[in-house]
Write a structure and sequence with these properties.
Structural class: mainly alpha
Helix content: over 70%
Largest sheet: 2 strands, parallel
Radius of gyration: 31 Å
Shape: rod-shaped
Number of domains: 1
Order of helices and strands: HEHHHEHH
């Protein structure tokens, strides 16, 4: 009986390495992609960046205009309130103060909506480029025999032969010459905000 148990245990241990080998992961064949270079030099990236910078400049100019309008409207009001020396303002001055506060709130809301629109547009651009880039990186990696691709910024050293940036960039420029520089569709904005 002991002999049978010993033989069964020996047979089981002989099978374990075979099972472990069947579960082994293949050796890594690594490629690197310079995502910083791609984001700075791809055709769609540069065009989108220019458009986004223009939108940001317009928003900053609008903020300066609104701030100037509020300062222009608020200065005389502040002087009128100061001239009261702590007395209660009359109905006309109260109405002016309320109108001024409404103007401030409206300006703040306008700027917040502009910032949200700009952030949504940036997210939309990033989403379009990222989706296409992932597909292209997977395709180029597979064609070069790589089963792992890492961003060059995350690597201390990589031989030039494993860098697939130029191939990825060429395909990205070909397959995605432009992107929509508009805010995300409403349904995606709501999903993103959660």
């Amino acid at each position: 009986m002991k002999t049978k148990l010993f033989v069964a245990a020996l047979a089981a241990t002989a099978l374990v390495p075979a099972a472990a080998q069947a579960q082994r992961v293949p050796a890594a064949v690594v490629a690197v992609v310079d995502t910083d270079q791609i984001s700075q030099s791809c055709t769609a990236c540069r065009a989108a960046s220019t458009s986004l910078q223009s939108q940001e400049t317009t928003l900053r100019q609008r903020a300066a205009t609104l701030q100037q309008q509020i300062q222009t409207a608020g200065g005389p009001l502040q002087q009128q309130v100061a001239a009261l020396n702590g007395k209660e303002p009359d109905a006309a001055l109260k109405a002016k103060i309320t109108a001024f506060q409404n103007q401030q709130r409206s300006a703040q809301q306008e700027l917040e909506q502009g910032q949200q629109r700009l952030a949504s547009t940036q997210a939309n651009v990033n989403q379009q480029i990222s989706a296409k880039l992932q597909t292209i990186v997977a395709s180029v990696s597979a064609s070069r025999g790589a089963n792992v691709t890492i961003a060059k910024a995350d690597v201390m050293f990589a031989a030039p032969s494993v860098d697939i940036t130029s191939e990825v960039l060429a395909q990205l420029n070909q397959q995605l010459p432009a992107v929509s520089v508009t805010p995300l569709p409403q349904s995606q904005q709501q999903t993103q905000g959660r």
